[in-house]
Amino acid sequence: MFNKTSNRYMTRSIAEEIHPEIAMRLWNLIDERKMEEDELDYLQVFELFIEDGKQLVLHRQEQPSYSKQWLIELKHTVPITSTIWCIDDGQSQMMLFPTDY
User: Fold this and answer.
1) Phi, psi angle pair for 25, to nearest 5°
2) How many CB atoms lie within 10 A of CB 34?
3) With CB atoms counted within 10 Å of each terminal CB, which end of the chain scores lower, N or C?
4) CB 29 within 8 Å of CB 57
5) Is the pLDDT of residue 3 over 90?
6) What is the pLDDT of residue 86?
7) Which of 5-9, 18-22, 67-71, 75-79 has the lowest average pLDDT?
8) Which residue from 30, 2, 8, 16 is spatially nearest to 80, judged by alpha carbons?
9) What is the pLDDT of residue 82?
10) Strands 66-72 and 43-51, how do they pair?
11) Structure confidence at residue 77 (pLDDT)
12) Cα–Cα distance measured from residue 30 to residue 24, given in angstroms and rounded to the nearest whole number
């Protein structure tokens, strides 16, 4: 799951509402886990919150169970509160809001 060579897409609503800096950070968190040879579920869940003017990201998956959080200082945009999914269907990867599903 989540091979870096797979095509990556985002829904129109992600493209319109999520700053590219945030989207790239989320893809990078997946890539970092893959480089560490962690087993990735087809569904990666990112819950974003604002904490002390920074972006708090809670990254989790169900199988195998995984949860980790980061506090990220953004340079080109402001932090947001949202939930974003990244899904790998084996052929491509999609970033979307749960409501897009």
Assistant:
1) -60, -40
2) 15
3) C
4) yes
5) no
6) 98
7) 5-9
8) 16
9) 98
10) unpaired
11) 97
12) 10
Task: Report which of 61, 4, 78 is spatially closest to residue 35, judged by C-alpha positions.
Answer: 4
CA distances (Å), origin 49, targets 19, 84, 90? 15, 11, 29
Say how many Å lie between the first and final Cα of the chain, rounded. 19
Helix (H) or strand (E) holding 70: strand 66-72
Report field, pTM of the whole predicted structure over 0.90 = yes
Beta carbons of 83 and 45 less than 8 angstroms apart: yes
* Alpha carbon distance 80, 49 (integer Å): 6
As a whole number of angstroms, the distance between CA 83 and CA 14 comes to 11
SS3 at position 67: strand
Tokens for 5?
A: 């060579």
Note the pLDDT tens digit of each residue in 4-61. Answer: 788 999 999 999 999 999 999 999 999 999 999 889 999 999 999 999 999 999 999 9
Beta strands at 7-10 and 92-96: parallel, antiparallel or unpaired:
parallel
